[in-house]
Amino acid sequence: MMFSLCPSWRYNASVLPRWQPTRPPPIELVSRYEYKVEEILDSNLIRQKLYYLLLWKGYSISEATSETSHHLANAKKVVRDFHLCYSHKPTPLESQR
Prior knowledge:
three-stranded antiparallel sheet, two-stranded antiparallel sheet, 27% strand, globular
């Protein structure tokens, strides 16, 4: 005998509230925009290039992106703090070998 636990219940997105957290605007520099890095989650070497997995300030973890190390020129403190905590992870020096 087979039966469904919830035969009449269906998900209806229109019933649920659509809450979106407010995101900070990008920082406008001379000719480009920059976003603040909240935390570096990981680092990885791919084809001798160092990539960081970044959690952006005001964004959810599902919106984390992987960026090359040269995109973090203005986030040196965050990079330094990451490597102090995770000394076993790939570093900028390893990518230059």
